[in-house]
Design brief:
Blueprint (H helix, E strand, L loop, with lengths): L1 H9 L2 H29 L3 H21 L2 H6 L1 H18 L1 E3 L2 E7 L2 E3 L1 H19 L7 H19 L4 H18 L3 H13 L1 H6 L3 H11 L10 H13 L10 H4 L11 H34 L3 H25 L17 H21 L3
Antiparallel strand pairs: 1-2, 2-3
Helix pairs in contact: 2-3, 2-14, 3-16, 5-6, 5-7, 6-7, 6-8, 6-15, 6-16, 7-8, 8-15, 12-14, 14-15, 14-16, 15-16
Length: 366
Amino acid sequence: MLSLLSDFRKLDRVILGVLLLLFLFGLVALFSASYQRQVSTGKNFVLNQGLWIILGMILAVLIARTSYHSFLSVSYVIFGMHIFFLILVLIMGKTALGAQRWISIGGIGFQPSEFVKVFTVLALARMIGDNPSCLKTKRGLIGPFLIVLLPMVLIFKQPDLGTAIVLLPVFLAMIWVGGIRLKYFMAIILSGILSLPLFWIFLKEYQRDRLMVFINPNADPLGAGYTINQSKIAIGSGMFFGKGWLSGTQNQLNFLPERHTDFIFSVVGEEWGFIGTTLMLGLFLLLVFRGLKIAELTKDVSGKLIAIGITTMLAIHVIINIGMTLGLMPVVGMPLPFISYGRSALTANLIAIGFLLNVQMNRTVF
């Protein structure tokens, strides 16, 4: 018990403080966003989220107490297990909202794509950390590229465009920090840009509709463009101070779909206005800066790559989620870390935080 307390005191207090404030922000917003649904269904979203926050934080602390090198030694096995889960999703997964993303094991349903992002970071960190020179040659890049490509393809098949997209900037950030040659790095980016027309061919019809609505928001105002239009109305109507807690009309009058999950930022914008959203963004920015600082102070290559991969993953989640609620990015189905309702995303993000704290405890100099 004393050992656990001693280790807890070593954890980064800035990260812990930011998480606490984000949890409070999220639970307050979730209560408002789910209040009417709770009345009609009897399901207590806030209580469920609170329980998973506690369980996730316990898991994060346990992960932080064990050297990340122990996890790296089995990272390929864990990564392979989650690839197997992704294949199971395509075979026997549960379908909801037009996507097949969930499976149930032992009566517990979860979304493997959320967890595979974290363990892709670990597998990449091990491969590059064990042989940093692999990024200096074309042949050496094949291994890291396949580690990212395999989950991306399987997630894209579900289809889950948002989660698949997240892995790309994570990969680019990790190989850049790992020391890839500039010409290879630029070639990868150029290849990605040139492959965009081919990417369009494989999109589902509703995904194409979302992209077209992003280009022209008025193309389908009552169909694919409905949610984003309502989201922009909600955020804009909050103005500077917001309408007040439980007083958002777009939220309380059910104009805003998926407001307890992907569009919970719209609820924050409507009820807490510019001040509330700025405070939330400031907390996320502080978390990202702290993650980058941990990466900077870490001398071990694998630890540095874990820190930069986790930080990039969380940052991209925030950018995409808030961008799509503002109409600055296409709607791709992306929860806001630590704020949106959902046990798989919440647990996976807290596991990621556990690894970030692990690196901070074991390989940083303050």
